[in-house]
Design goal:
The chain is of the alpha+beta class. The protein is built from five helices and four strands. A four-stranded antiparallel sheet has the order 1-2-3-4. The chain starts with 17 loop residues before the first helix and ends with a strand.
Length: 208
């Protein structure tokens, strides 16, 4: 059945109000639009698309900038490497339990904010003060007991010790740079010692 479209000659759009003029134009266009949809029925939007009324595909969030993560890791490594070498070891009390954690520390200081890194044999550079041998051995013994490694407790921070520290850092989701520093100290597990009873704990924990 042919659709009869009124001739524009018979319409005086200029005499109509704006609202009536819009209605007339809509009437003229509607048959054309309906015919176009019918002709393209096989080209309807795919199921699930926004145009078909389905759910639009989820927008993937932007991936984290790997460059920023790498920069942060490098900054952490530089900060850890810039610290003073641990040249002693001390028993750090755990609350008022009577237990403490033997860990590397600064020489003649109660601070454990120091580092040990590859190449400490046991001293670093030309300095010969303190007792870095004890600091390194304390770390090596703890890594062996709490993490099941078999490092030679020799007071030398060699490739084996560095490799174990990297593995421990990965386990605790830290930057695996192989440098023992404050973040590694606070994240890793330690075996506790009681100075009152002169006994060691059987289990390891991260009390700091």
């Amino acid at each position: 059945m042919a659709v009869r479209i009124p001739s524009l000659r018979n319409l005086s759009l200029f005499k109509l109000t704006p609202r009536k003029a819009v209605a007339v134009v809509a009437i003229l266009i509607s048959p054309i639009a309906v015919a176009a949809v019918a002709a393209n029925g096989n080209n309807s939007p795919q199921e699930g698309s926004a145009a078909s009324g389905g759910t639009a595909p989820a927008v993937q969030p932007p991936k984290a900038d790997s460059g920023e993560a790498k920069t942060d890791a490098q900054a952490e490594t530089r900060a850890a490497a810039a610290l003073t070498q641990c040249r002693s070891a001390r028993l750090v009390p755990v609350g008022k339990t009577g237990w403490g954690v033997p860990m590397p520390s600064l020489w003649n200081s109660a601070s454990t904010t120091c580092n040990l890194l590859y190449g400490d044999d046991p001293y670093r550079g030309f300095a010969r003060t303190g007792d870095p041998d004890t600091a390194i051995r304390t770390l090596q013994r703890n890594l062996n007991y709490c993490y099941g490694y078999r490092l030679t407790v020799d007071g030398v921070y060699g490739s084996n010790t560095r490799g174990v520290v990297k593995a421990v850092q990965k386990r605790h989701k830290l930057t695996a740079d192989g440098i023992y520093g404050p973040k590694t100290r606070s994240a890793m597990n330690w075996r506790l010692f009681s100075s009152k009873t002169n006994t060691w704990s059987k289990a390891c924990s991260s009390p700091l």
